[in-house]
Amino acid sequence: MRLEKFIATSGVASRRAVKRSIREGRVTVNGTTVFIPGHPIQVQTDTVEFEGKLVEPLSQRIYIMLNKPAGYITTRHDERGRPTVMDLLTDLPKSIYPVGRLDLDTEGLLLFTNDGQFANRMMHPSHETEKTYLAWVSGVPNKRSLNHLRNGVKIQKGKTSPAKIKLLDVNLPATKALSDKRNRSSKMSKLRVIIHEGKKRQVRLMFKAVGHKVLRLKRIRIGSLALGKLPQGKYRYLTPAEVKDLTD
Ligand code: URA
């Protein structure tokens, strides 16, 4: 395959920009600078670096969604040997990593990839990807609290941006969400929360700011991608159309 085509189809830059970079000596093949855009390469065996970064052929890019259970840390490796989300990704290359994070006790949709551009695109605040959560919280937030959450509340990391909040259910028995048996008789509410920021523990801190404890938290959607019926603890590959929709 022509060098410029290989790089451009991997998605790192436009065809024109790739040609220019090659001509300017910013591309190497197996460690040697190549100045000719049409230089032939072997996709399977040649190592191409574009502006210092390894170019992964499109076919080797991996995009996974996991339905994370509570109790798993979002990290590639935990020094203390605690369960990590990587323990749930059996039979997958070690080169993949989580896109963003979910707290230890948060469940639901978590993406993984080996595509750095995709990961940056998903996490960069300027793209404002909407994330939808189901939150089960103590008590029943009143109208004032709901509006407060919608308009933005002060948490440790500053004020939160406007959020979409919908009260879905009230007076649910809190038994399922609570390990603390002393509170078994208490009630909880279920809400849908849509935010487009990713401040640490944001949803938990937002509810804390209006006096409600999050008892259970589950992410059910990132942008156009819904968790759907993927069973807890299981993962699946995204379809090319899903990847495209996420990044369009
Ligand atoms: N907000 C939280 O509080 N925790 C998460 O894991 C994600 C969003």
Overview of the structural elements:
The protein is of the alpha+beta class and 248 residues long. It has three domains: 3-54, Structural Genomics Hypothetical 15.5 Kd Protein In mrcA-pckA Intergenic Region, Chain A; 63-124 and 228-247, Alpha-Beta Plaits (2-Layer Sandwich); 130-222, Alpha-Beta Plaits (2-Layer Sandwich). Helices cover 20% and strands 29% of the residues. Strands 5, 6, 7, 8, 11, 12, 13, 14 and 15 form a nine-stranded mixed sheet that branches. A four-stranded antiparallel sheet has the order 2-1-3-4. The model has no long low-confidence stretch (mean pLDDT 91). It binds uracil (URA).
Q: What would you report as the Rg, rounded to the nearest angstrom? A: 22 Å
Distance between the termini: 27 Å
| Sheet having the most strands | 9 strands, mixed
CATH topology of the largest domain: Alpha-Beta Plaits
> How many domains make up the coordinates?
3
> Could you state the CATH homologous superfamily of the largest domain?
Alpha-L RNA-binding motif
Mean pLDDT: 91
Helix content: 10-25%
CATH class of the largest domain: Alpha Beta
